[in-house]
Design goal:
Cationic amino acid transporter C-terminal domain-containing protein; single chain; CAT_C; mainly alpha; AA/rel_permease1; 25 helices; transmembrane; 561 residues; two-stranded antiparallel ribbon; membrane; Amino acid/polyamine transporter I
């Protein structure tokens, strides 16, 4: 039983399975891949969650973007090595199948649903907010009950009842209007986010009819949104007031790190390039290049735009859903604000497009391995896309986007993504140890971590004792029960570092994948415990599905029976 749970697929076996009649069209070059990567990364993060992050961390949030990008670079290198070794559509799911076996592969595949399908719900809701704002700019006003999740309206109604009208902000008043004006069935208000559901269905249709059409649409939208971001940076420079950058970190390190989920969400997507491996002309050469190039471009844009936003407006005013448009309204440049609103709709659409491309291809690969129904592996005879999986993805994204609040999904998405990133970095260590790296066309640069991993641990503790008085004092105030309740993830981080130092000394681990593991694990420790509880419940559901269907129907189960 145990052996079957951790049965692995060889690289040659995976490549052979991918060649057996999938029929996907090989049309993507390195420019197309870079475009898809930028389309995925530069979406709801830069046009929406960047405002909340700046509000919580101040101008110093620009440094958090650099830190998170630093983590993503190590992860991108690991993804690039796997992509050049196993150029198929399964992304981290396939990589885990090679390195850790079937059970871990299923867990990663199930976690990737959070990264792509669930995060796309956030993107769809963000798109709706900008779309409604754009329509109002043209004098078109949709009924409020058609433009938001019911939770927003119910919260606004309760706040009105408890505190009165004077306590409501602009968003609360819109929610109250939705609650009051909504049609009712048995006195239950009918409220949903119609634009979010509609755009999901339209993008799903585009993804369904072909990768070539999707790629062309993505290229056009990427050119538009990169152009507008450059315009915002160049135009905003003239409105920067240096005094807005003081204090640089008003809420300290805790305020900056409290925005980890929002900032990391802005980077989610660079790994989605790997899901298009079977549609690349030369995946082993182009996938690694595209991942690194798009990550560098996006990091530069993120840091620049954050400094411009916090320089134009005091960080305390940036707790808005459309920060790029807001800052130009704030300085009286309404025409620019209107342009940003229109192009934001285009920009977020491109991110939605890439995520809707990624999820079906992962399900297709899982189905090809027997872990999901054969229907998920169907390829349309005319459009040459995973047709059934694409339709199911559209439904899975559209329905929650109609009824759920955006902030519910942001942290949850990050937990699943961190989990996948850590296993991919760890997978490179396994490849090095097992000799599979010899088959890699691209390799993570090897730096012997035998002594460096342990030395880094000692250095971190020296710095903590010399400069972390506040952190040490906080830990001393906590009881053992409180440490277990609130600091368990931090303890796991330090224990994992010790374990990696011991194993690194024994097996001469490559330093860069280890750094990727530690940074992602540290960022995970900054997320709330409630998100971890939901994530664990999600994994439990996934394991039930695996043992109910996947374990029995796995192709490896049939070959080893």
């Amino acid at each position: 039983m145990i052996n079957k749970l951790f049965r692995k697929k060889s690289v040659d076996q995976i490549l052979q399975d991918s060649r057996e009649g999938t029929g996907l069209a090989k049309v993507l070059g390195v420019r197309d891949l870079v475009s898809l990567g930028i389309a995925a990364i530069v979406g709801a993060g830069i046009f929406s969650t960047i405002g909340l992050a700046s509000f919580e961390g101040g101008p110093a949030i620009s440094l958090l973007f650099v830190f998170v990008a630093f983590a993503c670079v190590f992860t991108a290198l690991a993804y690039a090595q796997f992509a050049s070794t196993v150029p198929v559509s399964g992304s981290a799911y396939t990589y885990a199948y090679v390195a850790f076996g079937e059970l871990f592969a299923w867990i990663i595949g199930w976690a990737l649903v959070l990264e792509y399908a669930v995060s796309n719900t956030v993107v769809a809701i963000s798109w709706s907010q900008y779309f409604v704002s754009m329509l109002e700019g043209f004098g078109i006003f949709l009924p409020k009950w058609l433009t938001m999740a019911p939770g927003y309206a119910i919260d606004a109604h309760l706040k009105f009842v408890e505190q009165g009208l004077s306590a409501l902000n602009v968003a609360d008043k819109a929610g109250l209007e939705a609650y009051v004006t909504a049609p009712r069935i048995a006195d239950i208000p009918i409220i949903f986010d119609f634009p979010a559901g509609l755009v999901t269905l339209l993008v799903t249709w585009l993804v369904y009819i072909g990768i070539k059409e999707s790629q062309r649409a993505s290229n056009i939208m990427v050119m538009i949104k990169v152009g507008i971001i450059v315009l915002v940076i160049l135009g905003g420079i003239f409105y920067i007031k240096p005094e807005n950058w003081t204090p640089f970190a008003p809420n300290g390190v805790r305020g900056v790190m409290g925005s980890v989920a929002a900032v990391f969400f802005a980077f989610i997507g660079f790994d989605s390039i790997s899901t298009t491996a079977e549609e690349c002309k030369n995946p082993q050469r182009d996938l690694p290049r595209a991942m690194i190039i798009c990550l560098i471009i996006c990091t530069i844009m993120y840091v620049a735009i954050t400094l411009v936003l916090t320089g134009m407006v005091n960080y305390t005013d940036l707790n808005v859903k459309d920060p790029l448009a807001f800052v130009f309204k704030y300085v009286g440049f309404d025409h620019m604000a209107g342009i940003v609103s229109v192009t934001s709709v285009i920009a977020i659409t491109s991110a939605l497009l890439v995520y809707q491309l990624a999820q079906p291809r992962i399900w297709m690969t899982m189905s090809r391995d027997g872990l999901l129904s054969k229907r998920f592996a169907r390829v349309h005879p005319k459009y040459r896309t995973p047709s059934y999986a694409t339709i199911i993805t559209g439904i899975v994204v559209a329905i929650p986007s109609l009824f759920f609040k955006m902030d519910f999904f942001v942290d949850l998405t990050s937990v699943g993504t961190f989990f996948a990133f850590i296993l991919v970095c760890a997978g490179v260590l396994y490849m090095d140890h097992a000799g599979l790296s010899a088959k890699s066309k691209f390799k993570v640069p090897y730096i012997n971590g035998k002594y460096l991993i342990g030395a880094g641990f000692l250095l971190a503790w020296i710095l903590l004792f010399n400069y972390g008085e506040g952190t040490i004092a906080e830990w001393r105030r906590l009881s053992l029960v409180e440490i277990v309740e609130h600091k368990s993830l931090v303890l796991i981080f330090w224990l994992s570092w010790i374990l990696l130092a011991v194993l690194g000394f024994r097996y001469r681990f490559s330093l860069l994948p280890v750094v990727g593991i530690l940074i992602n694990l540290y960022l995970m420790s900054e997320l709330g415990a409630s998100n971890w509880i939901i994530f664990i419940l999600w994994l439990v559901i996934g394991l039930v599905l695996y043992f109910a269907y996947g374990f029995k129907h796995s192709k490896l189960n049939k070959t080893t029976a």
